[in-house]
Design brief:
The chain is of the alpha/beta class. It contains 2 helices and 12 strands. The strands form 2 sheets. The protein has a 6-stranded parallel sheet, with no helix packed on it. Strands 2, 4, 6, 8, 9 and 11 form a 6-stranded parallel sheet that branches. The radius of gyration is 17 Å and the shape is elongated.
Length: about 160
């Protein structure tokens, strides 16, 4: 996490030198805010609570300054949305089933991160936009009939999809 803040700080200094704008003041303020949020939220990347379990067919999560950990066991999952602002989360869809040929999940992470665990049989397409952040799909591509499309934005944050 510290490495990310230092990298962002260096990028902002470079942009300041390139454009002549006073982005250094913005960078210092942003760094102080991020450090304060880190202190408030706590240390360590591992969430130490048990995930909540849900049988809902649509995911609808919004987390601001608080972590989310959820296991979805829906029999007919249809997608949904997730917004994380200065927050982290883990959504486990590995036991979710669907009858739909395509499921769309909107994931937006702003100064936060999200880990999605999807069934191994699903084909996953990441269509998210990353601005000083990233979308990463790891694992073997599924060969099933269900396609999961991940859309949204990662702004100074990240979304990891694990099969």
């Amino acid at each position: 996490m510290f490495r990310i803040f230092i990298g962002i700080f260096i990028v902002i200094i470079g942009l300041s030198a390139l454009t002549g704008l006073s982005l250094l003041k913005f960078a210092v303020a942003l760094l102080l805010i991020a450090i304060g949020v880190r202190i408030i939220v706590g240390h360590g990347n591992k969430m130490r609570f048990t995930p909540s379990s849900s049988n809902e067919n649509e995911l609808n999560e919004v987390a601001i300054f608080s972590p989310v950990r959820k296991q979805v066991r829906s029999g007919d999952f249809r997608g949904g949305s997730m917004v994380l602002v200065f927050s982290g989360g883990e959504i486990d869809l590995s036991e979710a089933q669907t009858s739909a040929p395509e499921v769309i999940l909107e994931v937006t992470a702003i100064f936060g991160g999200c880990k999605l665990i999807v069934p191994k049989s699903w084909r996953v397409y990441s269509e998210g936009t990353a601005i000083l952040g990233g979308y990463h799909v790891s694992g073997e591509a599924g060969s099933g009939t269900t396609t999961l499309r991940i859309r949204g934005a990662a702004i100074f944050g990240g979304v990891e999809i694990v099969q």
